[in-house]
Amino acid sequence: MSKYAVLNTEFPKVDALERALGTAKYAADYFMPNMLYSGVFRSTVPHAYVKKLNLDKARALPGVAAVLDYTAIPGKNRFGIIVKDEPCLVDDKIRRYGDALAVVAAETQELVDEALELIEVEYEELTPVKSFEEAMAPGAPIVHGQTNVHAKKHLEFGNVDEAWDKCDVIVENTYSTHILSHMFIEPDAGLAYLDEQGVMNVIASTQNPHYDRNEVAAMLGIPMNRVRVKQATTGGGFGGKLDIGVQLHVALLAWHTRRPVKMVRSRTESTMVSSKRHPITMKCRTGATRDGKLVAVDVVMTCDAGAYGSYGPAVIGRAPVHIVGPYECPNVRCDAVFAYTNNPMCGAFRGFGVPQAAVCHEGQMNALAKALNMDPIELRLRNAHKVGTVIPTGQTLTESVGFTDTLLKAREKALEVMPEAMARLKTE
Amino acid sequence: MRPFDFYAPATVVEALELMHQHKENVAVIAGGTDLVLELNERKANPAVVIDLKKLKELDYIRVEEGVVRIGALTTHAAIAADRQIEKYVRVLHEACRQVGSPQIRNLGTIGGNLAQSSVAGDGLAACVTLDADVTLRSVRGERRMKLDEFLAGEGATRRNILAADELLTEVSFALPDIRHTATAFYKLAKRKSLAISVIGGGMVATVDDNGICTYARMRAGALGRYPMPFPTCEAHLVGKKLTYATMLETLPIMHDQVLEANKSRPWSVFYKKESVQGVFKKVFADVLHQLGLEEVQE
Amino acid sequence: MNKITVHCTVNHKPVSVEIEPNKRLLDMLRVNLGLTSVKEGCSEGECGACTVIYNGEPVTSCCILAGQAEGADIITLEGVSVDGKPDVVQQAFIESGAIQCGFCIPGMILTAEALLMKNPHPTMEQIKEAMSGNLCRCTGYKKIEEAVALAASRM
Question: Which whole-number Å values give the CA distances from A175 to A179, A279, A284, B189, B192, in the listed order?
Answer without folding.
Answer: 13, 10, 8, 27, 29
